[in-house]
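Propose amino acids for all 367 sites.
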């Protein structure tokens, strides 16, 4: 059983206290496997990663490859596959008018992943900077719609990249959430929403981080990142022949921590607490915190590029509200409805949203 820390410092804010109670209860439920997301049971994982089980390690490395697509040579079959995929996940830019039409009379709420969505994927995670133009665009979006950044990164680190106080930030895959205070345009120094779903795991996560740093230091290119409520082991810069070393290092540490689980993303292995909390839960929590619990007039739009974002895409499909937009140049199994190829297209889409909002406000009263 985990202890949940929830602090609402602004008693007059729009935060829904009932929603917080509901979600702290939901966070204690055992984890299930979200659609499109690789979540490996502890027993199966350790069986696959037996040090003396070479074939099993090879099989698991193949899973790492599958979750981390690279630039592929174009072939007729791949072109056909991509064309078919685009039919089912059309460009959000090309379908912009249809998306706006679907949002008619509803409050748009924006949810944005960071890496690969607002910033390009880079070899050094500490240098995943967003452009000044992207930051200006996100600022304009936040002035038009409630906006949240939902990332696997530590919340503080994402904030240092984005540096926009008017946004909501959900770090560590939604386990660490903070929102702006209400009042005179987010008065500096005043508190807003603070929610942490797994505080009791912090000492354990710190231990695991230190052990993984030690275990992986002999593998060139391996990088271990402490994201406060989870640990990310990046292998983007590791030679594929050495991926098994990374897998074995993770295995040797994880076997000592039965309260932690492992998931996979794009060239990253992530160790997290075994609680049912992810980006989908964070999305629902933020919607309720904003006062949209059980509302039919809300239109959430979630844009992300990784497997971790599938939890949020799935929630939107199940709610039958809003849309998920996957950022990818390659066909992928996804619960998203639309697609964009790269962060520059994300910026174009966000700019079109801002322009549409300006026109709608000047042309007639929508709200």
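Proposal:
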């Amino acid at each position: 059983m985990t202890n949940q820390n929830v602090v609402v410092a602004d008693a007059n804010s729009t935060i829904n206290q009932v929603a917080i109670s509901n979600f702290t209860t939901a966070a204690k439920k055992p984890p299930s496997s979200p659609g499109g997301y690789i979540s490996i049971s502890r027993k199966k994982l350790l069986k696959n990663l037996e040090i003396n089980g070479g074939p099993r390690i090879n099989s698991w490395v193949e899973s790492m490859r599958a979750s981390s697509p690279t630039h592929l040579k174009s072939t007729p079959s791949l072109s056909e596959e991509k064309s078919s995929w685009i039919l089912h996940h059309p460009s959000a830019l090309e379908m912009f008018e249809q998306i706006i039409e679907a949002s008619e009379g509803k409050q748009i709420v924006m949810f944005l992943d960071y890496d690969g969505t607002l910033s390009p994927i880079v070899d050094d995670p500490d240098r995943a900077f967003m452009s000044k133009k992207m930051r200006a665009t996100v600022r304009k979006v936040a002035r038009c719609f409630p906006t949240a950044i939902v990332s696997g990164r530590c919340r503080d680190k994402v904030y240092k990249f984005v540096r926009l106080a008017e946004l909501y930030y959900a770090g560590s895959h939604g386990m660490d959430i903070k929102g702006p205070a209400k009042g005179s345009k987010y008065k500096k120094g005043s508190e807003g929403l603070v929610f942490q779903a797994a505080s009791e795991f912090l000492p354990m996560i710190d231990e695991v981080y230190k052990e993984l740093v030690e275990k992986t230091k002999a593998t060139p290119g391996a990088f271990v990142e402490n994201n406060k409520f989870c640990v990310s082991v990046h292998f983007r810069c590791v030679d594929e022949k050495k991926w098994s070393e990374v897998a074995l290092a993770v295995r040797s540490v994880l076997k000592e921590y039965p309260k932690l689980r492992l998931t996979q993303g794009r060239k990253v292995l992530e160790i997290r607490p075994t609680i049912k909390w992810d980006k989908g839960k964070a999305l629902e929590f933020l919607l309720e915190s904003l006062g949209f619990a059980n509302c039919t007039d809300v239109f959430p739009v979630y844009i992300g590029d990784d497997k971790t974002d599938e939890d949020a895409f799935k929630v939107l499909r199940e709610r039958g509200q809003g849309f998920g937009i996957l950022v990818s140049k390659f066909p992928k199994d996804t619960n998203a409805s639309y697609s964009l190829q790269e962060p520059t297209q994300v910026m174009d889409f966000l700019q079109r949203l801002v322009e549409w909002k300006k026109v709608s406000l000047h042309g007639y009263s929508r709200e």
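The first strand starts at residue 5 and ends at 8. Residues 343-363 form the longest helix (21 residues).
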